[in-house]
Amino acid sequence: MKPKVIVLRGTATNCDIETAGAFREEGAVPELVHINQLLSGEKKVLDYDIMAFPGGFSYGDDISAGKIYAVKMAKLRRDFERFIKDGRPVIGICNGFQILAKTGFLPENRGNRQVSTLYTNDCGHFVAKWVKLKVNKASPCLFTKGLPDEIELPIAHGEGKFIVEDVKEMAAITGRDLHALTYADNPNGSMLDIAGVCNAAGNCLGLMPHPERSFYPWQHPDRPAAARAAAAGRLFFRNAVGYAR
Amino acid sequence: MMIEIWTKEKYAGSEEAGFIGRMAHAGLKVKAARLSRLYRVDGDLSRAEFDRLGRELLADPVSERYSLKPGANGFKGAWRVEVWLKDSVTDVVGDSVREAVADVLGRRPERVRFGRAYYALGPSAAAMEAAVRGTLVNQTVNRFGMEKI
Amino acid sequence: MNPMENFNSLSAAELAELDRACGWSLNADELAEVQRQFRTMGRQPRRGELETIAQTWSEHCKHKTFSGPVAYRAGGKVKRYKNLFKETIVKATRTLNKKWCLSVFTDNAGIVEFGEGGRWGLAFKAETHNHPCAVEPYGGAETGVGGVIRDILGVGLGAKPVLNTDTFCFGRLDGKKKLPRNALGPERIMRGVVEGVRDYGNRIGIPTAAGGIYFDDGYLLNPLVYVGCAGLIPADKIEKKVRPGDLIVCIGGRTGRDGIHGATFSSANIDEETGSSAVQIGHAVNEKKALDVLMRARDLGLYNAVTDCGAGGFSSAIGELGSETGARVRLERALLKDTRIEPWEIWVSESQERMILSVPKGKLKRLAAILDAEDCEYCVLGEFPGDGRLLVTFGGEPVADLPMEFLHGGVPNFEKPASRRRVKVSSKKPAAPAYWAGALKALLAHPNVCSRRSVITQYDHEVQGGTVGKPLQGRYGDGPGDAAVIWPQAATLDPADMHGFAVGHGFCPAVGRIDPYQMALHSADEAVRNLLCAGADVRRTALLDNFCAASPRDPEVMGDLVQAAEGCLAAALAYGAPFISGKDSFYNQSRDAAGREYPIPLSLLISATAPVKDVRRSLTINFKAAGGALFLAGRSLKGMGGSVYNELKDSGNNAVAGLDLKAAAALYEAVRRAMEAGCVRAAHDVSQGGLAVTLSEMAFSGGLGAEVDLSAVAREKGLSAVELLFGESPARLVVEVEPGREDEFRRFLKGLPAAFIGRVAGNTGLAVSDGGERLFFEDIDVLKACWQKELI
């Protein structure tokens, strides 16, 4: 079976095409769907096997990154909740993570209130560069299964500082190893160096780095040296598609 | 009505340090600073609706707070500088927020304008104004107001 | 009485006064021609008509200076050009007549073949947005980026943008010159421009991955902001043709008074902020909506033609599309930002983010469905009738009613005098520094050499996942790449297609101050060499020319331009590299604090692109492994003119090394073949700062030192060590060859100047000697620390 992937778009979403391409390369059937198509009822979230919120910007990230998209999702909240609860893989990359945090789907909590945010980087502006990430091997995250202890992925964001205000909520993340990825050298001031978090079931992941930009070895800045190693980002997509099959 | 959005003080350290550094580079010594974002929403909305916009749309519930009374979190004796785009200049953020307000409240306000406020403790009026003109404001597109609170 | 109402009887002085008040910038001949035409028509012109003519005939739209007649005087001889542009830049392209050039000089951008099988074209365009960036750097840069992206969206039936480029020129940040009142300082301009490029490019999702920043006090009052864009277009979507009966549809942003230039003489009472409207703030979200709509509608064949609204707004965009069919425009249908706007203002407003489509009536509904789905606003402004008449009305009231042929054919032109500038050149032996390593460290820290990392990392240079040749590359992801290599997978949607393209630049205004002809040669050479270093197939290089100059009323400015244009012709012919598009910007001069005219130096940016057959095999600059064999390809020539070294410390020699075009072309072809065979692992050009800087950058980007002896280097007789290490003579590059393949490499370069100069070391020491003399030894971490400055 070829899993069907819904790659969600909105006004001025970018990274959607590359993200869809990554799923296609792993044997899934991606479809770019505008939030307006969901709101009008033309398309239904629950008709798909995998969901991806791509990175980049949405609605210009006016107010704050991902906020307007999150507001637009409010009417469809039940469908999204059901999708996650069903255990279908959901990945939010960069802007997608910001959307998942601002809708309250991540970090998982009772009632899915917004308990975390991704705030302006400590340096105060957008930063695009490659970073080293530590992989939490104890995490239930299905996307990061089989990754080595340390990987490299590019980041590209202005608002990536992960903040959880409530210590209990933070303990709920770290206590269950839901922080699937942490920065080796914190680029934005995130609490506990957190770069990505998942839900307890491991099927919903939000992360600031861009795995779709490290899908092929030749996307790495250190060529050909790094080209010998497999590109780390590819496994995120392979794992999701494999799981959905 | 104006909605002012503040970063909670415990998360505001880096933006304040950044601002103080930038002012220092422009030759202005600022002892302490606070920054905020301003949304001026023109339209027939109730107080409860403005509260809802502050709570649900404009302020991040984790890292920010809002107030409907301008300057409520500034320090006493500080300069308060408001910077806006002139009315003739397209306000991209304002336009975008106007649409988002419609998503939240079900109706579009007449107009939304986006601005910023800076609170600075320390400098003299003349030095403050010179630094504002030299770094924060371009009079081709901006207008600004300055007052002591 | 309103002078507009008796235009036909105004005196020359009154016409000039009216022109000034309205901000048209028409000269006396042009004003007289307009008056003559309306006298012939037997009526007074309307405001909208005069505005339309002023826009259509403007320097910006017609490029009157460059494509006009010129008389060039040098050494007692006079050379006359009927059309300088056609007789130099265009002539090169016509002479070369490459079949892989799909569209040149006619559309919004040039288009060359991309990949194999004739499926794709690559559209490439660069322009400048200088004055707006001087006044409001952030908004100016944003709208500059937005404008050139729209050129790519509006070429053919629309190309998908896959790369943004930008090259900036600012005054020195540490400059001492006093600024006039109201002028912004270079640091503020730089910050605003960088933030504008960042916020617009990042939001719209196009990687900003090539370009440069150049500091010189000549740009203190007139910064230059070159913005470029490259996009992919299906080869069968290059032709566009408006069909009579098509609807005129405007999509994207709304029209407002923010796009009105100059003094608005008859309507000054409308808005107290009138004077502020020359600069706009960009709206990337609206442009992204238009982009998303266009790509879908194009592939469904829902329109017959498209162009962008740039200078002149509707008047030029609709005028251009309807130049054969005529156009019937009803301005009351335009979507407006603000109702306080006069009809003629709607017609000429340059509000951003608008595209004009020519849509068959039967397809409007399907197009509208896509526009609605993407929340992209649109309006149907009228139709293209087929009668060759331009009729613009507002609620039945005529705004303009003109024959198209008057608009597009009527502009008079006159011969401009040009003369050669006298420059004192000294060829004496350059003075050596007391301490070679110290000079190298100072060069690495020079603002025109040091790291651009703090700027580049603010741009999303990897969005679309195709930036294979990165602006920051090497072992630590921080080395200075020579050219961007783009693998447009997000446009081809075929990850099995490994074709890509490289984009590089050449820019040498310091050489131009001494010899404008050599500047053009050096710039073209640097651009081609950058492509070669990235492993591109330079046999298929296509070039863009972007000239910025001071007032062409100064014969010496025109003389510089003539020489540089001749240089472009010679270089293009020698490298087999046609120009496919270009643009020019004049009057880049202002009054300084003392009230004197302060012109920029003649500035020619050459942008170049060439195919990369397999992006996986594209090259980076860093040393790859200990033992790698280092060669310097190219002959080192005398002359320190235009070098960074001379700017730091005058060597007493300002001669410019002449470029031997034929030798360079032969050398590059040999190096290219060696690269194709796979012997080369790294390559980096010798440019700003000279050979010592090139070696340092290759070394610290790879974390490996080298043991170098330059004694075998091919050199002009009597070349000094200063010229060898720090001179910037063109047509040279350093390559690292895989150990064991040195002889193979030598065979490729048989009979050409390419010298073995040493090997990559296993440690971090960079040792350079010439014969018996050790010139310097330095740790690469120390060199890197000098180079890593935060510009912003």
Task: Provide structural commentary.
The complex is a heterotrimer of chains A (245), B (149) and C (792). Chain A is an alpha/beta fold and 245 residues long. Chain A contains seven helices and eleven strands. Chain A has helices at 16-25, 35-39, 67-73, 77-85, 95-103, 167-175, 234-244; strands at 4-9, 29-34, 50-53, 90-93, 116-120, 127-135, 150-157, 159-164, 181-183, 194-198, 204-207. Chain A has a nine-stranded mixed β-sheet, sandwiched between helices. A two-stranded antiparallel sheet of chain A has the order 5-8. The longest helix of chain A is centred in the last third of the chain and has 11 residues, at 234-244. With 149 residues, chain B is an alpha+beta fold. Chain B contains four helices and six strands; from the N terminus they run E-H-E-H-E-E-H-E-H-E. The longest helix of chain B has 14 residues, at 92-105. Chain B is globular. Chain C has four domains: 1-42, no CATH class; 74-239 and 488-540 and 551-618, PurM-like, N-terminal domain (60s Ribosomal Protein L30, Chain: A, 2-Layer Sandwich); 241-412, PurM-like C-terminal domain (Phosphoribosyl-aminoimidazole Synthetase, Chain A, domain 2, Alpha-Beta Complex), CATH 3.90.650.10; 620-792, Phosphoribosyl-aminoimidazole Synthetase, Chain A, domain 2. In chain C, strand 3 (101-103) and strand 4 (110-114) form a beta hairpin.
In short:
By secondary structure, chain A is of the alpha/beta class. Chain A contains seven helices and eleven strands. Chain B is an alpha+beta fold and 149 residues long.
Helix content of chain A: 10-25%
How many whole angstroms does the radius of gyration of chain C measure?
A: 27 Å
Q: How large a portion of the residues of chain A is in β-strands, by DSSP E?
A: 15-25%
The topology string of helices and strands of chain A comes to EHEHEHHEHEEEEHEEEH
Largest interface in this structure: A-C, 38 and 44 residues
Which stretches of chain A of 5+ consecutive residues score pLDDT under 50? none
Choose one word for the global shape of chain C: globular
* Proper CATH architecture of chain A: 3-Layer(aba) Sandwich
Strand fraction band of chain C? 15-25%
- Tally of distinct domains of chain A: 1
